[in-house]
């Protein structure tokens, strides 16, 4: 079935090669109104209200997300579980502003994503969100160091390479900084991808099956690393996983089924 997205912005957004590499002002959880005064926005770092995501296909509209309501508190770790096709990745895409909700409220780190244009969304993403995917999306012609430095350079950091070096050290890759992705193991590539996602100290880390391409032992190392970084940086982690043990390591779990969050199934550790 061929399916096309509703709305002109979608394809542009979804195919952006650098999802976390743009430059922006840091938000402090407060927004300026038109008079320049500050107002408090939602305390939640993620607040989704009655979110619907509908795509159109030749066969008609396809409801991908339905009546999704979700609040995630700052610093929380949240696992998103559910069967294949239940909407987990789509949920992350909406939170990341890579996918526009068809209707409903989407607030992330104090930004009302529904009111932002594509450029503003990209700036917000670069400043507030670190995204870790199942496949690593590293630039093959750049070394580990250059891959991690890239978003910092986009953001205008003068010390991009020294920060990138420290981050690679933090993920245990100091001896591999000058290696190209093809010269790194899967686990090492994922560590580079995590270092890159965290390079701008995002408040929110979105991870979509970050261990899906790794063997069990390497996967556990990656998870320990991710949780360790999340705690040290007091970031919020939203983690999509098929692994029940991994979900159990999060403070809270939501289960998705057929585009909805199954409220009754929510677990808080
Ligand atoms: N670009 C797209 N065009 C059309 N339909 C899509 C698109 N992306 C996802 N879908 C559909 O939306 C539904 C949810 O997909 P999604 O990728 O969010 O599922 P998921 O829970 O992440 O699954 P998995 O565990 O297999 O990764 C699926 O039925 C899928 O076919
Ligand atoms: Mg998925």
The pLDDT mean sits at 85
What is the CA-CA span between the terminal residues? 40 Å
State the major sheet: 7 strands, mixed
Shape assignment? globular
Structural class: alpha/beta
Radius of gyration: 18 Å
Q: Which molecules are bound besides the chains?
A: adenosine-5'-triphosphate, magnesium ion
How many helices? The count is: 8
Strand runs, count: 14
Give the CATH H-level superfamily of one domain: P-loop containing nucleotide triphosphate hydrolases
**How large is the share of residues in beta strands?**
25-35%
Uncertain residue ranges: 1-40
The CATH topology of one domain comes to Rossmann fold
Label the CATH architecture of one domain: 3-Layer(aba) Sandwich
The percent of residues in helical segments reads 25-40%
CATH hierarchy, class of one domain: Alpha Beta
Order of helices and strands: EHEEEEEHEEHEHHHEHEHEEE
In short:
With 269 residues, this protein is an alpha/beta fold.
Structure, described:
By secondary structure, this protein is of the alpha/beta class. It has a domain at 74-99 and 115-267: P-loop containing nucleotide triphosphate hydrolases (Rossmann fold), CATH 3.40.50.300. The protein is built from eight helices and 14 strands. It has helices at 9-14, 88-96, 118-128, 144-154, 160-170, 186-197, 216-233, 244-248; strands spanning 3-4, 30-32, 38-40, 46-57, 60-72, 77-81, 103-108, 111-112, 129-132, 204-208, 236-240, 252-257, 260-261, 267-268. Strands 6, 9, 10, 11, 12, 13 and 14 form a seven-stranded mixed sheet that branches. A hairpin with a 5-residue loop joins strand 2 (30-32) and strand 3. Helix 4 (144-154) packs parallel to helix 6 (186-197). The protein is globular. Bound molecules: adenosine-5'-triphosphate (ATP) and magnesium ion. Magnesium ion binds next to helix 2. Magnesium ion is lined by residues 88-89, 208.
